[in-house]
Amino acid sequence: MFTNLAIDDIKIRLLEEAHADALFSLIEENRDHLRPWLTWIDNTTGVDLVLEFIATSQKRYQKRRGMDAGIWHAATLVGAIGLSDIDWQHRSAHIGYWLATSHQGRGIMTRACALLIDFCFVALDLNRVQIR
Question: 92: which DSSP letter?
């Protein structure tokens, strides 16, 4: 279903257990900034919970119901992006994302969303993609 995506110095890769420490550190550094938009932020209190999230995400991916990926800028994890609510009957999905405050204003998320949207329409043959 999903292959690693890249444009310029931006890469999108499915989250794996090996990413848990870096992802938790990024969440910790950006907790106050992310809190207003991400309901799960205060419940993510340790690497063990990030590992559980990644395992759940991998199961969801295997069932073709969604995916969660990390966003790397110049080999540094800077955020996350994913697909949820994939509806194969109606060929639609939702994109969710977040980006570290230290990497905002550089067009990183614009390029990451463009990569994922293109993947949705070309590789997955979806008809509708919403960002929310």
Answer: E
**Inter-CA distances, 122 with 2, 59, 60, 126, Å:** 11, 23, 21, 8
Give the three-state DSSP class for 77: strand
Q: Summarize pLDDT for 49-91 with one digit per residue, the tens.
A: 999 999 999 999 999 999 999 999 999 999 999 999 999 999 9
21 near 48, Cβ under 8 Å? no
Alpha carbons within 13 A on the beta-carbon side of 103: 24
Within a 10 A sphere around the Cβ of 42, how many other Cβ atoms? 10
**Cα–Cα distance, 28 to 34 (Å, whole number):** 10
**What number of H helices and E strands is found in the chain?**
3, 6
pTM above 0.70, yes or no: yes
From the number of C-beta atoms within 10 Å of its C-beta (0-12, 13-18, 19+), residue 83 rates as: buried
Helix (H, G, I), strand (E, B) or coil at 121: helix
